Amino acid sequence: RAAMKSLRFISAEAFVSNAELARRSLGSVAHNLFPLLFKASYLLEKGDVIHDLVESWPLADFNIGELLGGTVDYQQDLSHGTCSLCLAGCLTGLRDYVLSQASSYRKRLKVVDLTGIRDVEVPFCECKQTMGRWARTQLLAKLCLELLAHPQHVQRDAGAAGLSIDVLIDLYVTDRSYEPVTQALLKRCHCPLKIRCVAFRSDNLALQKFFYIIKLTDPSLLRKLEIVHNVRLEMEHLDLLLTSTRFPLLTSLTLPARTFNAQRFTPADEQMLSTIGEKMGEMRQLTELSLSFSVLTGRVQKLLSPLKTPLRMLDVSNCSLNHADMAYLANSCHASHLEALDLSGHNIPDLYPSTFFKLLSRSSPALRSLTLEDCNIRDSHIHMLILGLSSCQKLQEFKFLGNPLSSPALKSLFTFLCQLPMLKTVEFPVPRDCYPTDTTYPLDDASLCGYDHQKYQSVAEELRLILVQANREDVRASTPLFGSYDAAVHETNNELGAYLIKSFKETLEKFTTSL
């Protein structure tokens, strides 16, 4: 349902709808109306008006999350809108704010916060052209370098030399954007726009480049660090990173696949793991940890017990956990604080059913997101699963793709899920009876799409009707076969795909040479 607009907001829309009139009139607009005009311009995708508003910004702060969030005049939250036209107008307007001829004492802007933007799968803007986190990083770096090379900067007078604006941003760097971002960070002290990195994500980056750029970001300010996919960080590299660099404000840490491999641990590796745990324990703000696709068998306690603050989010999917690991999690201080838990890739019903349900019971007061993909949950386990989930009254998101469940079992589960009052998102598997009878689990890529699509649609419609009849149309149920939407991966998939092809080619060449 569309949010109500106040008369002030309707008037603001009328004002910004004529870009030329708005440009001529900005000088006589009251300063406290700029935020209202900015949101109205964003809603109407008036990139040129956004540019002019930012170029003339009269206030000391510019926080895009607050500007686009719900307000008295228009309660609709627009912070999930990453319209390329609007964001380009915003960032180029910031550059031109620095270059504008207004005397420096009239320029009050001190802090620009761009961290409140949320990338989503379906953009609401009519142009459907989005500017993701990687592109925002690239554009800001480019504009900073343009300012440094601009004649006005080179010949700056003593008065203008005092202009300094902190730009808070979540950086996303790959090999393709590494050079301009590195240069912008390296020359930050000379640029009026000071990039302040609050969150940093790196992908498809050589280790040497990663270690260099992470130092330039000023790690003392980092709150979130994501090292993913094609950054070949192993345990000794992580040990070096945590030993040489302090992250006092870090709240969230994501490590790439195969960072740990307990199958080949030596006594020295065991000691290194303990050191890493102690170093993470020094990060007293750390509450979110993602360790997916590492082999951690029997080592979870050694890694997590030094942490001083209970975790709110833990992803140990496909980490080959054993009973001792699950027992530690179930009895640890983390259990009762967990809001998000991912245990995908573990044969929970057969290996440690009672320990898992103890963990679920202890985490139920806080748990909001639970992911149990490829956990070999079968029809015979549905009653037990419903029993375990019944205490999770705050659950908002439940994902259980890849489990061999039949259509009747899914219907029983959906009937129960309707009773969870805060549930909003369900990701369910293609029913087992939609696949050929000889299909085995876990599903490989070749058989994943080989199901009866017509039968699946029929079952999906029945599941939707269960939600409708229970007045739970607010629940979004889907089957994303290849996993949930990842905005960062989606934005850079061409570069990452090219990297994988190159790596495969190099591997083949090495193999051929060895033969």
Automatic annotation (TrEMBL):
**GO CC terms of this entry:** cytoplasm
Q: Which UniProt keywords apply?
A: Leucine-rich repeat, Repeat
| Listed Gene3D superfamilies | Ribonuclease Inhibitor (3.80.10.10)
User: Family, per the entry?
Assistant: Belongs to the PRAME family. LRRC14 subfamily.
| InterPro entries in alphabetical order | LRR_dom_sf, LRRC14/PRAME
Its recorded name reads Leucine-rich repeat-containing protein 14B
Q: Which domain of life is it from?
A: Eukaryota
